[in-house]
Amino acid sequence: MRLDIMTDIETLGTNSDSTIIQLSAIAFNISTGSQTDQFNLIADIEKNEQPLKVTGGTIKWWLETDKELLHKLLSFGAHSSEDILREFHDWLCELEFQGYDLYLWGNGILFDNKMIQHQFEQLDLKYPIFYRNDRDVRTIVDLASHKLGISEKDLKERFNNDALVKHDAFDDVIYQINLVTGCYNILTGNEGSI
């Protein structure tokens, strides 16, 4: 039985081994947007087992984009980045154990999904997503915007929710679920069903 899971991470860099400071995910129904299981953990980077891996551009980006959110993320975590990954791995494996075929969505499979996979492997954890089951938010948005004949920016604006905090991974997951569900229904001709 298929289970779609939206994920988002906040990091201190853009490389595959960059320190993750927040990891969030929600299982959802792609045609209705209804949500079930949730995962959301923030790291306490002082507890990290490995040295921090940061990129200067990412730190500058955080300070220019939302330094208050960065402060919150760096101040309120409880687990090391490595423990967050271990707990996420356990969460995914529990869903898989329940008989689900997991489809992992990221806002760029070469960022979120690839970073999670790389860091699982660094911790000797098997990536529990079949290679054909990685899914990309950007691709479905591109396809839906072409079908409607509008820009991706205009399409994304349709699903904008001012109550959500941009760059908080959990709120980004909620937004991305709404966006993907909307795009899925546009592409399947069920736009009125959402």
Automatic annotation (TrEMBL):
It comes from the Bacteria. It holds the Pfam family Rv2179c-like. GO terms for molecular function: nucleic acid binding. This is 3'-5' exoribonuclease. Residues 5-181 form the 3'-5' exoribonuclease Rv2179c-like domain.
